[in-house]
Amino acid sequence: MKKSKWIMLIAALLPLALFFFPMWNIKLEAPQYPDSIGMNIWINKITDQNPNDIKNINLLNHYVGMKYIPEQMEEFELFPLVVGIMSFLGVIVVFTGKKYAYLGWGIVMVGLGIAGLYDFYIWEYNYGHDLDPMAAIKIPGQGYQPPLIGSKMILNFKATSLPMLGGYLLFAGIALSFIAFYIEKKFSKK
Amino acid sequence: MKTFHLIFKIFMLLPLMWSISSCQDGSGDKKGALGSNIAEKVYVAPGEHDEFYAFVSGGFSGQLAVYGLPSGRLFRVIPVFSVDAEKAYGFNEETKPMLETSYGFVPWDDSHHPDLSQTNGEIDGRWCFINGNNTPRIARISLQTFETEEIIEIPNSAGNHSSSFVTENTEYVVAGTRFSVPAPQVDMPIAEYKGKFKGAMSFIKVNPEDGHMNLEFQIMMPGFNYDLAHPGRGKSHGWMFFSTYNTEEAHTLLEVNASQNDKDFIAAVNWKKAEEYMAAGKFKEMPADYRHNVYDESTHSATSNKMTTVKVLDPTELPGLVYFLPTPKSPHGCDVDPSGEFIIGSGKLSASLTAHSFPKMLAAIESESFDGEAYGIPILKYEDVVGGIVEQAGLGPLHTEFDGKGNAYTTFFISSEVVKWKLGTWEVVDRQPTYYSVGHLMIPGGNSRKPFGKYLLAMNKITKDRYLPTGPELTQSAQLFDISGDKMQLLLDFPTVGEPHYAAGLPASLITENSKKYYKLEENNHPYAIKSESEAKVVREGNVVHIYMTTIRSHFAPDNIEGVKVGDMVYFHVTNLEQDFDVPHGIGVIGANTSELLIMPGQTETFVWNPKKVGVWPFYCTDFCSALHQEMQGYVRVSPADSNIELTWSLDDE
User: Fold this and answer.
1) A50 in B contact zone (CB under 8 Å)
2) CATH class of the domain whose range is B528-650
3) Min Cα–Cα distance to chain B from A56, Å
4) CA atoms B467, B469, B470, B475: torsion sign
5) Do B579 and A137 make contact, defined as CB atoms within 8 angstroms?
6) What's the pLDDT tens digit per position in B348-392?
7) B553 and A59: CB-CB below 8 Å?
8) Structurally, what CATH architecture does the domain formed by B47-512 represent?
9) Do A15 and A106 form a contact (C-beta atoms < 8 A)?
10) pLDDT (tens digit per residue) in A137-167
11) Cα B378 from chain centroid (whole Å)
C-alpha cells in the first residue's frame, strides 16, 4: 500500500479516539479551590474532572441561577453517529485511493468540526445567559458564559476551556487527511 | 546580725552566679530573635505547611491537641475522653456510646501519653493511641480522619498511667496501673494494702488491618505503683519495661512513705514469653466488667459492648515472665534507646540517670545471679545490669528521648532544664533551662528505631510570668528546641490545651497523603441516612418523632415542619449531602438540651430535642457554610400535647 494510503487510513481512524478519550475540558479556578473544579466533555457524556466536580459546579452555579449541567443532550446521540459514519466513509475513501476523495473527506470534517464548535458555543451561551429569575445573586449585565477556547475571569473564578486528548487526535486526523492529499498530489504527478 | 549579713551576702551573690551561668550557657537566647536567625527557623510562611505534626496530650482536658512544628500552630483539638460541644462529641446520639464505661457515662478523663503506631520499629502514620488516667481507658485515634475510633476500658486498673505505649510492630498497646487496688475489687480495710493489693499490666492486642483493640491478657503484679513504660526494640523487641515506685507498698502519705527505699524497680516483662504461656493455657479467666466502644466510619455511629472476662497471668507462678531491675529513687521515665540496648531509668528523686544494659540483663538472667526476689519475682543485681550512669546531670530526672545520632535528652523537673548527654560515654554535653518545671519531652519518632532528630519539644507544667496574665489560672506550655547542632537552641514557646504530659510527633508527609477529605455519600450506612432531598421525611412513632433531614448549600430539607407537640421526643437525623472538601454544615435548635451538630460532608448525625413550649421555633446552620449561610434556617411548629395538627414537612412550600 502506498504511503499516502496509510496516512489516510490513520486519518480516517483517529476520530474514533473520541470514544475513548474526552474531547474538551472546562475548569474553574479560585483560591478556595486549590485543585480547581472542572468537567470533561466527551462526544456522548460529561464527566467529573475530579470526583463530584459536576455536583459542586452545579452547587456554585445555582447561586447565580445557572441551570444544572445536563446529563442528557441530543448531541450525545448525534455526535457518536456522525463520528462513526465519517470514520467509515474515511475508510472507503482510502480504498478509492483518489486524492480528491481525501481532500473532500478532510473538508467535510472541517465543516463538521466548525459546526460542532458553533453548537458548543451556543450551548455555552445559553448555559451562561439563561438564568433563573429567582436566583439569589443577580448582577445586571453579568453573563457566565465560559470561553470557547482559552481563559477568562468570571467573577472570582478563572474559567479555562481547552481541548483534551480526544479533541487533539480528532484535529490530527483532519490534518493527516490533508497531508495524504498533498503527498498523493505531489507524487502521483511524476 | 551575723546571720543577717550572711543572708545579705548570699542575696548579693545570686545575681552574680546567675549571670555567670547564663554566660556559660551562651545559648544566645538573651539576644533575642534579632541576634540570630531564630525567627526564621520557626517561620512558616502563610500558605506553607509545617514539617512535623505534634500530637500533644491535653492532660485534664481529656483531649489530644494537634500542632504543627516548627510553627507551634494549633490545628485541631481531637475530642477523646471528654465531651466536646463544638464537635457534638458525647452529645450526639452517634458518639454518646464512646464515653460509656462500666460506671455509666463518664464525660471526662485525664489524658496523658499519646503514642503512634509502628511498623518494623518505625512510625507508620496510621493511628495514635492515648490513655485516660482516671477511669482507666485506652483510645485509638485514626490519623486519616483525626477522630477517636475506639475506646477500651481497662478492668482491675486504677490510675491508668504507665500507658499507652506501643510495641514495634503495634502488636500491643500496654496499659499499667499507677494505683494498685484489690483485684477483683473487694470491701476491705485500706491498712491491709500490703500484699493484698495488685497492680495489673494490660496487654491490648491491635488488629493490624483495622486497628481494633482487644484486651488479650493482664499480668497481675505486686501492689507497687507502675509509673511509665516503654517497649523494647531491635535486640530487645519482645520485652516491655515498666518503672515502679512505692515498692514500699505504702497506703498513706506516699510523699514520705513511698520515698524510703534507696532503689525501686524497673520491671522487665517478656511478653513473647507471656504469649507462650497464653498459648499453653497457663492463664486464669477472671470475671471482669468493662466496656469496649467502637466507632464505625460506615454507619458514622459508635456501639458500646459489655465485656465480662479477662485472662490473667500470674508472674509469681510463671518463671521467666518478669524480672526486676533495681533502679534508684522512684524512677519515672524508663526509656529505650533506638538500638534497644539501653533502658534509661530516671530516678525522679535522684541527681543521676541509670542506663540498664539489655545484653547485661540477659546475661544476668542466664547466670541466675539474683539478688533475692519480690513476691516470687527475681530481682537482678544492680551492678550486673547497669550499663552506665550519667552522674550528677541535674536534679529530678523525668524522661529521656533520643535523636538517633547517639545523643539522649533528659528533662529535669526540679532543676527545670533539658540536658543533652551521650549514650556510651555518659557525659553531659549541653543543658538548657526550661520555663518552668518541665515534665516530658518529645522528639518526633523519639520512641522508635528511627527518630527524626531535628526538633525537641519540652512540655512545661507551669508558666508563671511567661505570658500575659489571665487571672489565677495560667496556661501550660511547650518549648521547641532546635537539636540539629551541637548545642540545643530554644526557638519558640507556645501555650498548650490543658496540661501537656507527653506528645508524639512524626513527619507530616506520613499523614497528609492519606488524610480523608470527605465521607462518600454512597458509603454512608447510617440507619437514618438519606441520600437525596426527595427522601426527606418526618415520621411519628407514638411521641417519638424522627426527622430525616438533609443539608446542602444553603438550605435544610425540609425546613418547615408542623405537627410536633409539646412532650415529644424529636430526633433530628441530619445528613450532609455535600461531597466537597471542607464544607461541613451545623445545626442548632432553640432550647435544645444538648450541643449543636457539626456534620462533615457525607456524614449523618443525630441530636434529640424535647420541645417544652408551644410556638414556632427556629433552627439554623451553625457553621458558616456559604454566601447564603445566614439564609440557612428553618422552623418547627410546636403545638399543645393534645392538638391534632397533622405532621407535615416541606421545602419551598413543596
Assistant:
1) no
2) mainly beta
3) 7
4) positive
5) no
6) 988 899 999 999 999 999 999 999 999 999 999 999 999 999 999
7) yes
8) 7 Propeller (2.130)
9) no
10) 999 988 899 999 999 999 999 999 999 999 9
11) 32
